[in-house]
Amino acid sequence: MSNWIVILTGAGVSAESGLGTFRDKDGMWTKYDLSEVATPEGYARNPGLVHDFYNARRRNCLDASPNPAHAALATLAAQRSVTLITQNVDDLHERAGSRDVIHMHGELTRAWCLACDQRMDWRDDLTTETPCPKCATPALRPDIVWFGEIPYHMEEIDMALRQASLFVAIGTSGEVYPAAGFVAEARAMGIPALELNMEPTGGRFDDGRYGPASRIVPDWVNEMLGT
């Protein structure tokens, strides 16, 4: 049997860094109409509004700092075989030291040109007039997977799950598919599943630890490393 840990992180792992969660009572989707700011149709109707929304989120991300949960996961990955998958579009895992993070929903610090299909690093604001550095066409959008679009790297994620000896979900609501189905896939293959979250999301996991990510994630990592 392999000794590979597959970890899925959601908004809860970055909440203590000042980045908003989505589906709790004060989450982002209670403040914005997702059909207007997080769908291809919303972007087609009002690209300026969508750019304003993601410009604000990008600036918020760049001003934020990794918290102890991000740092602990980087420490774990440096010493154990880990595949780190995130639903988050921030870069806090990378800034904490994690490498080869799988961003299944894209990244705030990347842009995608709809004219030439190039994707590129991008840390500035975007507008409907911003020219693509590759083809000069003003057709850049955030490189974010919106509702109705297919998440990135699904084949790579499936391969990781198949070789895992442990699946861990951290700070995720378990409501957005396909990520919400990863625990069922793991359980179907006989892979133990652990939840680290503010509160239980259901009975699908074999075990759970509950509380703020900045506390429970380092505690779990210390146990895993015997420190």
Automatic annotation (TrEMBL):
<dbReference type="InterPro" id="IPR026591">
    <property type="entry name" value="Sirtuin_cat_small_dom_sf"/>
</dbReference>
<feature type="binding site">
    <location>
        <position position="213"/>
    </location>
    <ligand>
        <name>NAD(+)</name>
    </ligand>
</feature>
<dbReference type="GO" id="GO:0008270">
    <property type="term" value="F:zinc ion binding"/>
</dbReference>
<feature type="binding site">
    <location>
        <begin position="197"/>
        <end position="199"/>
    </location>
    <ligand>
        <name>NAD(+)</name>
    </ligand>
</feature>
<feature type="domain" description="Deacetylase sirtuin-type">
    <location>
        <begin position="1"/>
        <end position="227"/>
    </location>
</feature>
<dbReference type="GO" id="GO:0070403">
    <property type="term" value="F:NAD+ binding"/>
</dbReference>
<keyword id="KW-0963">Cytoplasm</keyword>
<feature type="binding site">
    <location>
        <position position="132"/>
    </location>
    <ligand>
        <name>Zn(2+)</name>
    </ligand>
</feature>
<keyword id="KW-0479">Metal-binding</keyword>
<feature type="binding site">
    <location>
        <begin position="87"/>
        <end position="90"/>
    </location>
    <ligand>
        <name>NAD(+)</name>
    </ligand>
</feature>
<dbReference type="GO" id="GO:0017136">
    <property type="term" value="F:histone deacetylase activity, NAD-dependent"/>
</dbReference>
<feature type="binding site">
    <location>
        <position position="116"/>
    </location>
    <ligand>
        <name>Zn(2+)</name>
    </ligand>
</feature>
<feature type="binding site">
    <location>
        <begin position="171"/>
        <end position="173"/>
    </location>
    <ligand>
        <name>NAD(+)</name>
    </ligand>
</feature>
<dbReference type="GO" id="GO:0036054">
    <property type="term" value="F:protein-malonyllysine demalonylase activity"/>
</dbReference>
<protein>
    <recommendedName>
        <fullName>NAD-dependent protein deacylase</fullName>
        <ecNumber>2.3.1.286</ecNumber>
    </recommendedName>
</protein>
<feature type="binding site">
    <location>
        <position position="135"/>
    </location>
    <ligand>
        <name>Zn(2+)</name>
    </ligand>
</feature>
<keyword id="KW-0808">Transferase</keyword>
<keyword id="KW-0520">NAD</keyword>
<dbReference type="InterPro" id="IPR026590">
    <property type="entry name" value="Ssirtuin_cat_dom"/>
</dbReference>
<comment type="similarity">
    <text>Belongs to the sirtuin family. Class III subfamily.</text>
</comment>
<keyword id="KW-0862">Zinc</keyword>
<dbReference type="Pfam" id="PF02146">
    <property type="entry name" value="SIR2"/>
</dbReference>
<feature type="active site" description="Proton acceptor">
    <location>
        <position position="105"/>
    </location>
</feature>
<dbReference type="GO" id="GO:0036055">
    <property type="term" value="F:protein-succinyllysine desuccinylase activity"/>
</dbReference>
<feature type="binding site">
    <location>
        <begin position="10"/>
        <end position="29"/>
    </location>
    <ligand>
        <name>NAD(+)</name>
    </ligand>
</feature>
<feature type="binding site">
    <location>
        <position position="57"/>
    </location>
    <ligand>
        <name>substrate</name>
    </ligand>
</feature>
<dbReference type="InterPro" id="IPR027546">
    <property type="entry name" value="Sirtuin_class_III"/>
</dbReference>
<dbReference type="GO" id="GO:0005737">
    <property type="term" value="C:cytoplasm"/>
</dbReference>
<dbReference type="InterPro" id="IPR050134">
    <property type="entry name" value="NAD-dep_sirtuin_deacylases"/>
</dbReference>
<comment type="function">
    <text>NAD-dependent lysine deacetylase and desuccinylase that specifically removes acetyl and succinyl groups on target proteins. Modulates the activities of several proteins which are inactive in their acylated form.</text>
</comment>
<feature type="binding site">
    <location>
        <position position="54"/>
    </location>
    <ligand>
        <name>substrate</name>
    </ligand>
</feature>
<dbReference type="InterPro" id="IPR003000">
    <property type="entry name" value="Sirtuin"/>
</dbReference>
<keyword id="KW-0378">Hydrolase</keyword>
<feature type="binding site">
    <location>
        <position position="113"/>
    </location>
    <ligand>
        <name>Zn(2+)</name>
    </ligand>
</feature>
<dbReference type="InterPro" id="IPR029035">
    <property type="entry name" value="DHS-like_NAD/FAD-binding_dom"/>
</dbReference>
